[in-house]
Structures are given as C-alpha cells and as structure tokens.
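Minutes, project huddle
Topic: does the predicted pose make sense with MTE bound?
PN asked that the exact inputs be recorded in the minutes so nobody has to dig through chat later. Recorded below.
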Amino acid sequence: MKIKKVSRMISIDGDAVLNEALRSIKHPARRLFLERSLTLGSLSLLSGCAIVDEDSVEHALRRVSRFNDEVQAWLFDPKLLAPTYSEAMITRPFPFNAYYGEDEIRQVDAEGYRLEVTGMVADKHSWTLAELRDLPQTDQITRHICIEGWSAIGKWGGVNFADFLARVGADKTAKYIGFKCADDYYTSIDMPTALHPQTLLTLSYDGQPLPPRNGFPMKLRMPTKLGYKNPKHIQAIFVTNTYPGGYWEDQGYNWFGGS
Ligand SMILES: Nc1nc2c(c(=O)[nH]1)N[C@H]1C(S)=C(S)[C@@H](COP(=O)(O)O)O[C@H]1N2
Ligand SMILES: [Mo]
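Predicted holo structure (tokens), as shared on screen:
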C-alpha cells in the first residue's frame, strides 16, 4: 500500500508542488516549521493521504492543520490559568495591531452601539453598552502574545464570558462561538475556551473605557489564545455548530491558536 503511494508520487514534481502549496500558508511560523520539516513523503504519512497531485497536497496540508487543532483542543486544560502580573509590569504604552494601520482605526459610536447575540442562544436580544456595563465586572492583568513576534502585558476589565453565555442561555454543547467586528475582522473560538474562567468580554483597559485603538467598545480577551484570536470592535456574537473560520485563519493561520 505504502509502496504504491510512493510510486504514484514520483509522477508529479514533488518539490514544486509542495513549495507552491506552502506559499499559500501565510502563517510565518507555521510555514517555516513545515518548510523545515516536511517532505511529500512525511506529509503523506502525517495526513494519511495519498499525494498524487496539487489538490491532494493542499488537502493533506489542511488535514495536518486540522489535526493540530484537534491536538491543541485535546491538550487544552479548561481549569489551567494563564499567568497574571502586577500593575507595575503593565506595558506602557500598550501596542496597537490590526490588519490595517493606525490611521484607519474604526470609530464606533457608543450611543448607537448594539451587540447582536444570535444562533444557539435562548435570549437573542441586542445589548446596549449601558446594559453590558451594568453586568458584574472583573479585571485581569495578563500577557497578550502576537504571532508577529511581540508580546505585552495589559490590564483588561469586563464581564466574565462564561457568565455572559449563561445569561443569554447559550447552548454549551455547541462547537463554536463566532465573532463579527466593526472593521470586517471576524474569528471564532471553541466552547471550552469560551467557558475558560479568564475569558473576558472586555469593556475597559487599565480602568478606562477601552480606547478605539484597542477595540472600543468591546473586545474578547483570552490570555490562553494568541493575539489574532482576540477580536476587537465586536458587533455580533453567534453560537453555532457550523465552522465559522476567521480573517487570518482562512489565510492559513492555525484555527485553535493557543498561546
Ligand atoms: N477587529 C479586529 N480585531 C483584531 C485584529 C484586527 O485587525 N481587527 N487584529 C488582531 C491581532 S493580530 C492582534 S495582535 C490584536 C491586537 O490588539 P491591540 O491593538 O489591542 O494590541 O488584535 C486582534 N484582534
Ligand atoms: Mo497579532
């Protein structure tokens, strides 16, 4: 069986096909890892797919990435807390990052703001900012880690997301929570991370309303996940069993994105 796969592989230009498929992976760290460690043979073994043409290489790469998501989900300990820090360790000023520059930061109008909550939830009413601020608030000083190679410690305040999900009657057996943002960014997370005690529906930064650059009026803060999984300017939250993907995830970043 394996011999058959190998002999079929020889019929395509393995290196060229693999390099082409690797170029489609935008995640720099992931691409580097794959470039250093992957051959068509090992990809075939890892994915269990026969590598016979361009499409099968991409299919196999997608399978390895999904496998990575499953391993991360399996390794994720819902009770293990991310490290917390003292006030003195907060990074000042806290960096800005988005898929655009600082001159294009979205200005969301506080008065007109409504947080839409839909999908597998009992209460589908939209929330005003005042309503969100009326919920019990908590804060945390944690480290944000960006895949682009920087990290920073910040203090975020807001509503425990598990409490929020309980309040809207979310179906906790659902697989995904999806987020749509005011700047067209979108992402999605797994239910165990949504219910993690440090996952925070964040309304404030360092005791002040969340500044526009860091996601006014609301972002989801998860110290257990990399920066790109933490959506800013959230306008809609939906609970679903249909895989929602994400802005960077759809371009090859790993979906689970644990930190
Ligand atoms: N809406 C929105 N959320 C986003 C992004 C974005 O471009 N738009 N970028 C992500 C990335 S890659 C990072 S590192 C963090 C940066 O958050 P900060 O500006 O508060 O440092 O936001 C994440 N959430
Ligand atoms: Mo990031």
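Observations noted during the meeting:
- The chain has a mean pLDDT of 88.
- The pocket of MTE (ligand 1) is lined by residues 95-99, 146, 181, 183, 185, 213-215, 227-228, 230-233 (CB under 6 Å).
No decisions taken; revisit at the next huddle.
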